[in-house]
Amino acid sequence: MDGKKLAGEKAAEYVKNGMVVGLGTGSTVYWTIMKLGELVRGGLQIQGVPTSRRTEELATELGIPLLDLAEVDEIDLTIDGADEADADLNLIKGGGGALLREKLVASASRRLLIVADESKWVPALGKFPLPVEVVPFGWELTRRQIGKLDCDPILRMADEAPYVTDNGNYILDCHFGVIQGAERLSAALNQLPGVVENGLFVKMAERIVLGFTDGSVEERLPKSK
Ligand SMILES: O=C(CO)[C@H](O)[C@H](O)COP(=O)(O)O
């Protein structure tokens, strides 16, 4: 069975009438958004805050009323995917290129719920290269500076040109190997001029809904909370 669909649809149960809901990006939360579209057509009243143009288009097509992040003080609940999650629910995100808006929306949220299939659950973060969003101006220099933190950043490409985020920036995919101190690494990256944001989400997620190919769904909380 499709673990992404199972997890995505299950998470929609957390959305209640009247909520402002952060809508993540990717192929797992796609199923949450589809479900929410169905519930909205059936009378559920929510307002969504999208984390990407892609999600904005999908939610609009489904008739989910949307708010701009600038219009809200606090989001009740955000549901989003992840590229990796460890037992403390620290995450790598940004495989879909939306990490900056995803982190802004997650930071404005009272609760962050992650949806993923079993393949995203890892003993330690770092097999998936960490996406780092950088400004295009002088990106080669930023790449060299990030490289000094012990990785070899690769410029993400799309159709033989640099991939450009919704914010007009580039992404460097950084292979650090096993990430021990996620908080420290995140701070070190973000203090480099030229780095806009990185895909480490540390101590932000409240729970993860994991879907398994055998058809089961499990919910897990951070181990060290
Ligand atoms: O961070 C993301 C997009 O920037 C996604 O949440 C992440 O890449 C997971 O995507 P998927 O659910 O398609 O596996």
UniProtKB/TrEMBL annotation:
The molecular function terms of the Gene Ontology recorded here are: ribose-5-phosphate isomerase activity
Highest taxon listed in the record's lineage: Bacteria
* Record carries keyword Ubl conjugation: no
Q: Which residues bind substrate?
A: 25-28, 80-83, 93-96, 120
Query: In the UniProt entry, which residues are flagged as the active site?
Result: 102
Catalyzed reactions: aldehydo-D-ribose 5-phosphate = D-ribulose 5-phosphate
Enumerate the InterPro entries for this protein: NagB/RpiA_transferase-like (IPR037171), Ribose5P_isomerase_typA_subgr (IPR020672), Ribose5P_isomerase_type_A (IPR004788)
What UniProt keywords are attached to this protein's entry? Isomerase
Give any Pfam family that matches: Rib_5-P_isom_A
EC no. given is: 5.3.1.6
Described by its record, this protein's role is as follows:
Catalyzes the reversible conversion of ribose-5-phosphate to ribulose 5-phosphate.
Say which family it is in: Belongs to the ribose 5-phosphate isomerase family.
Q: How does the record describe its quaternary structure?
A: Homodimer.
Q: What is this protein called?
A: Ribose-5-phosphate isomerase A
Give the originating organism: Paenibacillus harenae
